[in-house]
């Protein structure tokens, strides 16, 4: 142990004083432990073993092999984007526990990221002003597409060709409604709205049932289109786009498990998501209701 004999005697004396009992006694020319020390030995061995285990766990944590990560997201991103990402992440880091919080209130998730209750949040947004304590690690853009499962809807069209068709859109005055309404107004189009909802998954499900035309992110409807449950309309006008980002708390240190997920997300082959760069951290964000 690289200790001299006087140093060992000093440690033993300090330990005996702390415990209030003798641990060693002379026996001829040598020393032997007392019955009190014999009683302690099994427990001390367990302490040494636990210390070794603790050091091993810490090294595994440093190597991203062990730990936990807390992620927040909206319902649509939780259903369509995160599952394949987390599947690959779990395959790489099987001992990292993942906690996923899903809510329709993205502002609440961002507040939890800012306060440290969540490590990351995958959220869609409209604008990106400044906010302290929060940064976007990665940002993407996705096209919004018109989808339908109705007879009589042309496969390729202008918005003006759909004036008589029913539409399923988002809750009035929500951020998504503001985004879509502004887009329609810029093209001088007034849709015939029959249903509104504050849930992107509900809009998707209603469109799937053939109740009307919806406008949703392409990544949200890709699987339904491939399975023939929805048709993506070939729109002649330039499509609307929506932004998405992986937000985290502004800090000089990123826990290894969190850093591993950010690195994986930066190269993950999500279909129809185009990485973009942002010049400033997010602030009083405008979030769509997805």
Low-confidence stretches: 279-290
What Rg is obtained from the alpha carbons, in whole angstroms?
30 Å
- First-to-last CA distance: 61 Å
Question: Which CATH architecture of the largest domain is right?
Answer: 3-Layer(aba) Sandwich
The helix tally amounts to 9
The number of domains is 2
Q: How big a fraction of the residues is strand?
A: 25-35%
SSE ordering: HEEHEHHEHEEEEHEHEHEEEHE
What's the β-strand tally? Answer: 14
Shape: rod-shaped
What's the helical proportion of residues?
A: 25-40%
Largest sheet, in brief, is:
8 strands, mixed
What's the quaternary structure here? single chain
Mean pLDDT, all residues: 85
- CATH C-level of the largest domain: Alpha Beta
At the fold tier of CATH, the topology name of the largest domain is D-Maltodextrin-Binding Protein, domain 2
Which structural class best describes the helix and strand composition?
alpha/beta
Short description:
With 290 residues, the chain is an alpha/beta fold. It folds into 2 domains: 58 residues, Arc Repressor Mutant, subunit A (Orthogonal Bundle), CATH 1.10.10; 224 residues, D-Maltodextrin-Binding Protein, domain 2 (3-Layer(aba) Sandwich), CATH 3.40.190.290.
Report what the structure shows.
The structure is a single chain. This protein has helices spanning 5-19, 35-62, 75-80, 82-92, 106-115, 175-186, 200-208, 218-226, 256-267; strands spanning 24-27, 30-33, 66-73, 95-102, 120-125, 134-148, 156-157, 166-170, 192-197, 214-217, 231-232, 234-235, 241-249, 274-276. It has 290 residues and is an alpha/beta fold. It has 2 domains: 5-62, Arc Repressor Mutant, subunit A (Orthogonal Bundle); 67-290, 3-Layer(aba) Sandwich (D-Maltodextrin-Binding Protein, domain 2), CATH 3.40.190.290. The strands form 4 sheets. Strands 3, 4, 5, 6, 10, 11, 13 and 14 form an 8-stranded mixed beta sheet that branches. A two-stranded antiparallel sheet has the order 1-2. α6 (175-186) links the parallel β8 and β9 (192-197). The protein is rod-shaped and about 105 Å long. The N and C termini lie far apart (61 Å). 26% of the residues are buried. Mean pLDDT is 85; it is low at 279-290.
